[in-house]
Amino acid sequence: MAYTLSRSEQRTPGREPFEDTGRSDRETGINFGEWYSTPYDKTHDISLYGSYDLNKKWSFNTNFIYQTGQPTNYPVGKFEFQGLTVPFYGLRNKERLPDYHRIDIAATLTPKKNTGRSWQAEWVFSIYNLYSRRNAASVNFRRNQDTGANEAIRTSIFGIVPAVTYNFKF
Length: 170
Known about the structure:
Layout: E1 2-5, E2 9-10, E3 12-13, E4 29-30, E5 36-37, E6 44-53, E7 58-67, E8 71-72, E9 75-81, E10 84-89, E11 95-96, E12 100-109, E13 120-128, E14 136-143, E15 150-156, E16 161-169
């Protein structure tokens, strides 16, 4: 078992203008110069790993991963400009993607060693993301063409991924 409690923040203050032009040229910085979460901020990160050797031929492994959702920006409003609808975003990384979690499993078959060979081999049968959780890589917003309502669209990269691997050592 491994658990990490962490915080990753950044601050980007603004700059004052080099010369006084009589107008407000002051840069406010990101988030008005206040601290905000970086994209790497994962407050909670938990990993559980289990392994079981049934006999000399078969071994089984499982891995569970949970992470706090990644900081992101969602639109908080919109405005019209020259016939275009433009989204308005609030403070930097104020929201988070949904939490990430998955279970991976594997079974390893190690055939009886052939004493005439100088190398060993094994077969690994595995499943990544066993329960096919659609973890969000990003969330985008669009206007539904049928209803006209705004909607959030979750983009996921991987569902369940079975694999067979042949490993050899020499």
